[in-house]
Amino acid sequence: MPDDFLPIQGTDHIEFYVGNAKQSALFYQYAFGYKLIAYAGPETGTKDRASYVLQQGKIRLVLTSSLREDTPIAEHVKKHGDGVKVLALWVEDARSAYTETTMRGAAGVQEPQVLQDKHGEVVVASIQTYGETIHTFVERKNYNGPFLPGFIEKKSPVRTEPIGLKYIDHCVGNVGWGEMNTWVEFYEKVMGFSLLVTFDDKDISTDYTALMSKVVSNGNGYIKFPINEPAEGKKKSQIEEYIDFYNGPGVQHIAIATDDILHTVSELRQRGVEFLHVPGNYYDDLFDRVGKIDEDLEPLKTLNILVDRDDEGYLLQIFTKPIQDRPTVFYEIIQRKGAKSFGKGNFKALFEAIEREQELRGNL
Ligand code: FE2
Question: Residue 332 C-alpha to ligand 1 middle, in angstroms?
C-alpha cells in the first residue's frame, strides 16, 4: 500500500503489567507452553521493575511487575489488576510512525528514543489509545539481541513444549458507553486503519444483554482491532462487568491463531486452562449450520470448540475464562480455514455462556 502512512509489519509484542511477573511467567510456560527468552530487572540494571519475555511462534509476551510502591506500574496494577499495558507494533520506521500519528491527533506518550546495547539499536516511540493502554512503535531492523536493549537472554529450567500457538490474530478493546465510534475514528484518522465489519446490538444480543462492536484493520490486514461498547439490555452486559472491574477501558481479549486447534485446546485443558462452556445441544445441528468440515464432531464436542462459516470458509474457536481473578482479560484460540470473519454465528451461544459465568460471580 504505497499511500499507507503507517506501514506495520505485525504485532511486535504485548506487555502485561501484573502483580507478580515471576509467577505469571511460570504460568505462561507451564500452561501455554511459552518459552522464556529474555529478562530485565535489578540484576541487569533496571531498578524499578522486573520483566520476563516469553515467546511461542511469532508471539512475544512481556510480563512486568513493579518492585516499588509508587511507580506507574504499581498504580496500573492497583487500578486495573493484571492487564495489558502495551500493544506494541513492529514498524520499519518508528520516528515516522510517531510523527504521522501525532500529527493526526494521537497523544504522544514517549517521543522516539534510541535504545542501544552490544547487539545494535532499536527505536521506540509510544502513543496513547483507549483507557491507559498504549501503542509502542518498535523499529528493530538494526538489532539482533534477544528482545530489546536492556534485556538479557534468559533460559528457564522449565522444559516447555510449544502447543501450536502461531501468531496474534486480533486484539479486542472494551470501551465505555458511546465511545466505540470515537475509537474507530481514532484508528481510521490517526492510524490509517479501515473499518472491516460492524456488529450492532441485534447481532450481539441474548435475551438479557447486548453489546456493539466494530472491527478496524491496518493496510496489510496484519493488525485487527475489534472495539466493543456496551448496549442497553435487560441485565448488565459483559462489557460493563469488564469496565467495572478493570476500572475503565482496556484490552478484553487476545485471539491467538493455531493451525491445529484440537491439539492446542486439548493441551491447554490438560495443563489447567479453563474455557467457557457451551451446552452440548450447540452440537446437535452443527453440520446443518456450517456444512461439511474436515473435523469430526466428537472431538469438537468433547473439547467444546465452536465452529462458524462465512463466504470464504470456516473457522474454529474457543474462549478461555478470565486468566486472572478479576473478570477482565481472557484469550481466544482460533483456527481459520479460509474464513476471515469473527464467528458471528457463535455470538449468541458464547454470550449466554458468559452470562452464566457473570451470574455465578453475582455480576449479571
Ligand atoms: Fe475475538
Answer: 6
